[in-house]
Structure formats: C-alpha cells, structure tokens
Amino acid sequence: MTKMDVYPAIDLRGGQVVRLSEGDYGRMNVYGRDPFEVMERFRAQGATRLHLIDLDGAKGDGPLNFPVIRSIAGRGELFVQVGGGARDEDAVARYLDAGVDRVIVGTMAVERPELLERLAAKYPGRIAVGVDARDGWVAIHGWRELTKIDAFDFMRNLPEAGIETAIYTDISKDGMLSGSNVRAYEALSGIAGLDVIASGGVSFESEITRLRALGIGGVIVGKALYEGLLDLKRIIELAEGDEST
Questions:
Q1: Is 245 contained in some domain?
Q2: What does the pLDDT read at residue 63?
Q3: Number of C-alpha atoms within 13 angstroms, CB side, residue 196?
Q4: How many structural domains does the chain have?
Q5: Is the predicted pLDDT of residue 245 greater than 70, yes or no?
Q6: Smallest Cα–Cα separation from 177: which of 229, 238, 231, 232?
Q7: Does residue 242 carry a pLDDT above 80?
Q8: Are strands 145-150 and 137-140 parallel, antiparallel or unpaired?
Q9: Is the CB of residue 68 less than 8 Å from the CB of residue 27?
Q10: 84 near 54, Cβ under 8 Å?
Q11: Catalytic site positions
C-alpha cells in the first residue's frame, strides 16, 4: 500500500484565507488575513504540498488573488496546485509561468473538452481536473450551475483525454465537518490511469487511513485543520502509513 499525499487547503477571497460551507459564498468564515502566515504554519507542520483555490476567480470575478498565488508558488518551497477560474489557455499558462506546479480546471473540462485534451498534451502531468458534484451531477462555474453530466462517468473518461489526476469533491460535504463521501471514493479508486484526490468534508483520522487503504492518491484538508479537528502533522503521518499512536 503506497503513501497518500496530503494537501492542506488555502481558499482565497479578496486576499484573505476563508472557507465556504457547501460552496455557498453567503456562508463564509474568515480564518486569516495573511495567507503567507498560514502557508508557513502548514510547512512548519510538515506539509510538502499546498492546495490553493481562488474563490473570486471561480465565481467569475477575475484573477483578484493572482499576486498572492504567484508569490506563494514563486517561493518554490511547496508543491502548489491551484484552481479557480482557469477557463482558458492564457489563464493556465499564467499560473504555470508563475511557478504553479499543477493547475486544476473544472468548467473548462466540461465546456471545452478539446482544449482540455490539448492542454493535457502540452503540459503533461501539470493539468488536473476538479470534478465538483452535487447529488452525483457535475457542477460548474464556481459550483453555481448544475449539469446533467454524471460525475463518475465523467471521471472514467478523463484518462482518454490525457488527464492523470482528478480531484473529486462532494459539494454537500464540503465545509460541513461531517466526514467525506467515502463511498464515492470506493467507486472512483478503481479507475485505471487516474490518480484520484479526495476533497470535501474530511474531518476524522479514520478517513485518512480508509482513503489510503482504498488507494486514493491524495487528500485535501481544509476546514477541519482551521477548526482544530485534525492535526496536520498527525494526518501526514497516517497518510504515509504510520498508524502508531
């Protein structure tokens, strides 16, 4: 059983570190005004990777947080993956040129599959697809528009487009501190050629060990860290296979 990567999450809105509940911009908690301080805290606790989301970009308000993202990625201290508003080739290239290791696209993958395939070929291993699901259907445009695309079927087709990594988020679980949709990851873990990263509601140590046992490649943890339900150093140990107390 291989180790699982841990991605502590920093969601940015107006330059601040925030978390939404179920993707609702009206239900937002601010957890810090200095994303660099939060990043350094994660790094001090053993993080080697970081999951950055531009919520303003995801909502369609433009790359307001790009200067912060560029500064964090440009330091080269962590593997940084970024999502939120990367809906065309220029936006993807801007992130990669700024030092981002992997760009997460969502809406583009649904609306412009030919572009997704071209970018996957142009930047091998550096494009991931974020699949955000509500009641099993793919949501786009910052989770505000629900499609009639089955999320599992959509993910099964991603390797054919050259995509190696996908992040699956159950929107109903995100930010609720009630646990993730483990059954979904049981179904997704067997997709050949696709490294699945779990996201949304991860709140318990037992989930970390369960997801690792399923062969899930990575886990994104956000609100549970900010609220003190999980200890980052401890879950990194569990994800790497150290289950001793």
A1: no
A2: 79
A3: 26
A4: 1
A5: no
A6: 229
A7: no
A8: antiparallel
A9: no
A10: yes
A11: 11, 132
